[in-house]
Write a structure and sequence with these properties.
Elements (H helix, E strand, L loop, with lengths): L6 H9 L4 E4 L9 H8 L7 E8 L3 E8 L6 H7 L5 E3 L2 H8 L17 E4 L8 E7 L2 E5 L1 H8 L2 E3 L3
Parallel strand pairs: 3-5, 5-8
Antiparallel strand pairs: 1-7, 2-3, 2-4, 6-7
């Protein structure tokens, strides 16, 4: 099945990074990564979600964590050079990233924010992240994601 390329996919194309676009059925009442994993028939530990946070010293940054987990705000603050961090309000997501909830990709955000990928990603040959729209995921090697977004690997949960 051919999918329309997203900006995130085009970025990977330009970088020569191998990936696969994988579609799933969107359930408006459940935009969780747990639901996405179930739709894909994949282990939820391999389906990562993109969380936007704001630190008290260094501003906005991004954490990419396994779908069933929550970001530990103390750990996230520490790795990002902040004393405190909080999740960004939903209404700020689109203006800050260009993406909506359930379709926020770490690739192709409006600005290049610091990005931190949870260390468990390296346990898998591939992981899933949002392709930048609801109903579409990118399947790629964790090392390729790290390269594409210049992510630091960290303990975040």
């Amino acid at each position: 099945m051919k999918h329309q390329k997203t900006n995130a996919a085009r970025i990977l194309d330009r970088m020569g990074i191998t990936y696969e676009l994988v579609a799933y059925k969107v359930e408006e009442s459940d935009l969780s990564a747990v639901h996405v994993a179930a739709q894909l028939g994949q282990n939820v530990e391999q389906v990562f979600k993109t969380i936007l946070l704001r630190g008290d010293r260094n501003g906005v940054f991004v954490c990419i964590v396994p779908g069933a987990e929550e970001v530990n705000l103390k750990l996230a603050a520490s790795v990002s050079g902040n004393k405190k961090a909080e999740t960004v309000a939903m209404k700020e997501l689109l203006p800050l990233t260009g993406y909506i909830r359930g379709g926020c990709s770490p690739l192709g955000m409006k600005k290049p924010y610091p990005i931190y990928l949870h260390s468990s990603a390296s346990e898998f040959p591939f992981i899933y992240i949002s392709a930048g729209q609801r109903g579409l995921q990118l399947k790629l090697a964790p090392a390729d994601l790290i390269k594409a977004v210049n992510a630091a690997v960290a303990e975040l949960i």
